[in-house]
Design brief:
16% strand, alpha/beta, 7 helices
Length: 183
């Protein structure tokens, strides 16, 4: 990984949580490490959560899911996912493919990496992964979990009142964020 991909070079807006669109990403794995897992994204400012079930913890699967996300969100993707910060796992190392757009000729996002063994640099994501574990304990086979159940977890998390926001949810914060940009 080149030095300019270090979290130290992440935009100040992401560090200060003053701008929407800066995400942290990670995996939630189940009983077996070589089976299906959850690719989880947490937005830093609003704590919005996106959870995707993928077939394995491979770099190619991460890229494939991001390609699908870009196709789903279309032009909104580029303002929604300005940056993504990952850990140093091999499954996230292909930053060129993660950043490369399948729709436009420019990059779709910018990728940054936390320092090794510094999970606190992606603390928002780690805390939200703990919330997922309320529903999916470590011994659970993720292969057997339905997409509907995963979307229910995501919905619950995005409607969960958070003390840090004076008991507003991520969805409430998104609404406030949207109102500020529209007005």
């Amino acid at each position: 990984i080149p030095p300019e991909k270090s979290i130290e070079y992440r935009p100040i807006e992401a560090n200060l949580r003053c701008e929407y669109g800066h995400w942290e990403g990670d995996f939630v794995i189940g009983k077996r490490k070589k089976s299906a897992c959850l690719l989880v994204f947490t937005e830093r400012m609003t704590r919005e959560e996106k959870i995707y079930k993928i077939s394995s913890k491979k770099a190619s699967e991460v890229v494939k899911e991001l390609d699908q996300m870009e196709n789903e969100y279309k032009d909104v993707f580029y303002s929604k996912f300005k940056t993504i910060t990952f850990d140093n796992g091999a499954e996230f190392r292909d930053y060129k493919s993660i950043e490369k757009s399948v729709i436009k000729k420019t990059n779709r996002t910018k990728v940054y990496y936390a320092h090794p063994y510094c999970s606190g640099e992606r603390g928002t994501n780690e805390n939200n992964n703990r919330l997922i574990r309320r529903f999916i304990p470590k011994s659970t086979k993720i292969d057997e979990i339905t997409e509907e159940f995963i979307k229910e977890i995501e919905k619950w998390m995005n409607n969960y009142p958070r003390k840090i926001f004076n008991y507003l949810s991520a969805n409430d914060m998104l609404k406030l964020c949207y109102e500020k940009t529209v007005i």
